[in-house]
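pinned: reference chain
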Amino acid sequence: MRQQQTLAGCLKADGPGRLHEVSVSARRCWLDHPAGLKSDSPYRPVPLAGLADELDGLSAADYGVDRTVAELSDPKIYLFHKVRANDTLGKIAKRYYGDAARADELLAANRDSLQAASEISAGGTIMVPLPVITPEKAPA
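pinned: its structure tokens
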């Protein structure tokens, strides 16, 4: 008779014991305003209760959940760039700011969807905080 293997022995029933074990997505949901969530109530799953104080102490700005819909759609604050094949945050920063070293600013502005610069992909959209060199005047 074949033995069945289960994941039960691999799962932690009591949830994560340390903050680094909590996914970035779960951290964002924890910090997000209930109006920004599908359930319209705070995201407080029981397995994360043991880390509530640490999660409450995180900076919403670091996870991109501190911006309102009005801010995100205001063309005076952000412009949206459609990522093309072979784009990098450095190339995009060079195009809009004239300085590839400002790629970190793009990463920070897109923290809600990117955890690392390598996560951008062709066809996606990233927010570019203003002011920028206008695309028509940007260096190639």
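why pinned: Confidence is low (pLDDT under 50) at residues 1-12, 136-140. The chain has two domains: 1-66, 69-129.
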